[in-house]
Structures are given as C-alpha cells and as structure tokens.
Amino acid sequence: MTQYAFYFDQDICTGCKTCQVACKETYKLPAGNLYRRVLNYQGGAWERNEAGTYVPNGVFGYFVSVACNHCTDPACGENCPTGAMQKDPETGIVWTDHDACIGCKTCQTACPYNAPTFSEERGYMVKCDMCAGELERGRKPICVASCPMRALDFGPREELIEKYGDGDVEVEPLPQNTTDPNLILKPHREAQKSGSGTGEIVSLDEEL
C-alpha cells in the first residue's frame, strides 16, 4: 500500500486561508462545513511599563492549516457504527460512504482533529478525501495547489519524509498523537508542544 500524506511548513504559513477558501469554493461546502481549516494560535500579552509604553511579554503567534490527516489508525473508522468511514487499502485515504452514513456524528466526536462535520443540507457527515477526483487526474489536492507560499505539499508519506524529514505532529493547538496521523509538520520556530501550550485559538467563527 502507498500511504498518502500531507506536508505542512508552519514556519512559512502566513495564515492567508487561501487553502481553506479554495477548498470550500471548489466543493461548494455549506456554512459550518470545512474540509480544511486554518487556525490562528496566539499567546502572551502586551503590558504597560513604568514609562507608559506597551511592551510585549511572551507574545507569540502562528497558524495551523489542518484537514483530515487520513490516520494510520483512524478513530473515526474504529468508532463508526455503520462502517461508513473507510480506509482505502491502496492509498490509505480515509473516505466516507455516504450511502451507509446515518449522520450520528460519532466519527466527529471520536476524531481528535475534528475533521468530519455534519452537513445539515445533505444529511450525512462530510470531510476531506484528499481530493480523490483530482488525484485520478494526476493533480495534487486543491489546498496544496492553491497555497501561494507553498507551505503545503502532498505525496506518498515515505517520499515526504525523505524530502522534509519526520517533522512533529504534536504542536499546539493540535492534540497529542493517538492515531498516527499522516501529516508531516515542520513546526514554527515558536511552536509549543501539545498539552503544554500557553496560548489559545483566536480564530473567529466567521473565519471558519
């Protein structure tokens, strides 16, 4: 099996959300549904000193572009009561059988990355399938092709590791690794370790 994966260089991502918007527009996703999200993670504060000037105290910030990570041990598939969440044996892509999906949202609850979301319009769960249609045409996923900074890449996991290194998926605000996500992430220079962060997600609801 060839396990496909995403690569994300957090250090060069500007948070422009082109990947998020291009995906949403391509698949005509309704409000409240996204296949890829760009999270803004910030911490620290600006404090006034004795001179009355505001100075930074531990201020930091970075972005995380996250979609379904097509995990090696997908929690969505393991917990789906109808078998609607499937992992392709040839590509490792985790996809949703919409005919079998009953919209119970168990997969959303189980997924540590909150990748599946319920479509009120369609009546079933929706999520990233790595743009399977684009792959069949020999193209890369929409998010990867649209990134102006080339912070995203895609390909067989082993090839990405050979090109970029192992990376680290345990970066705030992402969770600790429990599902072996197929994401090669190059952390931001200010990135904090999952579970020990001092910041928070400041993305507004309307931005997602």
Automatic annotation (TrEMBL):
InterPro entries: 4Fe4S_Fe-S-bd, 4Fe4S_Fe_S_CS, DMSO_DmsB, ET_IronSulfur_Cluster-Binding. Its cofactor is [4Fe-4S] cluster. Pfam families: Fer4_11, Fer4_2. GO terms for molecular function: oxidoreductase activity. Residues 4-32, 92-121 form the 4Fe-4S ferredoxin-type domain. It comes from the Bacteria. Residues 187-208 are annotated as: Disordered. This is DMSO/selenate family reductase complex B subunit.
